[in-house]
Amino acid sequence: MSESVKIVEVGPRDGLQNEKQNLTVAQRLAFIQDLVAAGLKYIEVGSCVSPKWLPQMAQSTDLFQLLPTDTDLHFSLLTPNLKGFEAAAAVNCPEVAVFTAASESFTRKNINCSIAESFEKFADVIQAAKMKNMRVRGYVSCMVDCPYAGAIAPEQVRDVAKRLYDMGCYEISLGETIGTATPDRVAKVWDCCLAELDAAVLAGHFHNTYGMAIANIYQSLQQGIRIFDASLAGLGGCPYAKGASGNVATEDVYYLLSQLGYETGIDVEHLMLASRNISQTLQRKSLSSYANAYWAQ
Length: 297
Ligand code: HMG
Ligand code: MG
What we know:
Keywords: Lyase, Metal-binding. GO terms for molecular function: hydroxymethylglutaryl-CoA lyase activity; metal ion binding. It comes from Acinetobacter larvae. InterPro entries: Aldolase_TIM (IPR013785), HMGL (IPR043594), PYR_CT (IPR000891). The chain is α/β, with parallel strands linked by helices. The chain has one domain: TIM Barrel. The protein is 42% helix and 16% strand. It has twelve helices and ten strands. The protein has helices at residues 11-15, 25-37, 60-64, 82-90, 104-111, 115-131, 154-167, 183-194, 213-222, 250-259, 268-282, 289-296, and strands at 6-9, 42-47, 74-78, 95-101, 135-141, 145-146, 150-151, 171-176, 202-206, 227-230. The strands form two sheets. It has an eight-stranded parallel beta barrel with strand order 1-2-3-4-5-8-9-10, surrounded by five helices. It has a two-stranded antiparallel sheet with strand order 6-7. Helix 9 links the parallel strand 9 and strand 10. Helix 6 runs parallel beside helix 7, helix 7 (154-167) crosses helix 8 (183-194) and helix 8 packs parallel to helix 9. The longest helix is centred in the middle third of the chain and has 17 residues, at 115-131. It starts with 5 loop residues before the first strand and ends with a helix. Residues 14, 17, 47-50, 53-54, 80-81, 83-84, 99, 110-112, 139, 141, 175, 177, 205, 207, 238, 240 line the site of 3-hydroxy-3-methylglutaryl-coenzyme A. The site of 3-hydroxy-3-methylglutaryl-coenzyme A has 24 residues, from helix 4, helix 5 and strand 5.
């Protein structure tokens, strides 16, 4: 049997948070239903953040309550603090994600606190999650470069990732937030982190600003990473990372992995329909090379 790779679909959160237009709850639900039909089982649904900061993510808990309840589906919400956590817990969301960075200046711009303060907030979230038997995923942004501070030392990424893991996050996703990294630099970060953390608890979250995301995923696979975040049609970007564009497209990750013989659980025809639907809803061309080639045939 072929080895499997876990894809965490972040389009409904990372993808839509960066769109100029705010989709309705019904449109967001249709997007997620399409993703489920395509075989995606791990989906970040939205964020419980201040709607003043990110109006695109407003009503994420309303959306959550409309989701299918099949037990093999894993839906999560992004929560920066206890207030966000409580909103997620109130709708019985089984998993939340906390997010900080390996860069002080990025953390300040993104969540308005220092890295140390973010750990304090997360300690409360993780403790509350444990009491409710909820899982917590951790994100570390700026795994290679920060839009404000420049190059980030791999040791700094390792230390933040290790701290989140030791605090109780079951999986740590390293964010290549601005998409400037090349595989040689990504390799150094994994080397450093893998000295302290098992590959099974590490995920790669690559943005594709400079077209390097698939190369970086290939590099990560060589080093044993088997969990990747991706966003349908290459939607996405962090509003607090100037110039950063979309996440790696789920369709392109599917193509790479299936050609390399990995199992992803994805049904390609439904994935293409999902891709076409969200591009039509947003009235823009998909950023996925694979999807564009597929529809051009
Ligand atoms: P703050 O202003 O420091 O918070 O923001 P505050 O505690 O002073 O509260 C200010 C107001 O926000 C108050 O309301 C709070 O009630 C409200 P007011 O009294 O003014 O009416 N508030 C909240 N409302 C709803 N939900 C909450 C919440 N918390 C406070 N959870 C805060 C701090 C974190 C809230 C703010 O900075 C924020 O919302 N930031 C948004 C961050 C964000 O979502 N960034 C994008 C996601 S991260 C990302 O994309 C990177 C990633 O993809 C990986 C990668 O690519 O690198 C994960
Ligand atoms: Mg991101």
